[in-house]
TrEMBL record:
Protein name (database record): EF-hand domain-containing protein
GO molecular function, one term: calcium ion binding
One Pfam short name: EF-hand_5
Domain of life: Bacteria
Ranges where the EF-hand domain occurs: 100-135
InterPro entries named in the record: EF-hand-dom_pair, EF_Hand_1_Ca_BS, EF_hand_dom
Amino acid sequence: MPPSTATATPGARPQPFATIVFEPAAMMIATCDANADASVTRAELHACLARSFGTVAGAKPDIGYIDYSDWAKTWLGDANVVPSPYSVDADNDDRITLAELMTEFDRFFDRFDTDKSGAVTRAELLTLRTAPATAPGKKKR
């Protein structure tokens, strides 16, 4: 892609700080809604992870960190997002299995399932951030 030639318009207000965001793991979980009911169960998550893992692993039982980076780029949006291969690789053998990936995403699922209903909704998957103390480029007085 060619570099952006867009320039800031003099006097224009900067884009506001995003206060509601989707973490990459939350975005992945949201895509696992198999029955289009706007919520994701653990069973839907596991089936989705198995399908997505298979796109990189094929018939292999595990993948290396480079393959995991390819998986993360495709399914999480970037090769360098959380969860990192180091957090997923529970036994530190430099290989990632589907079971390890599911275990890591079960942790995310449990954190996002704030009402402990066994399913996560879009509202539960959103992360609310506070605005920075000072706007970029402005000094505190």
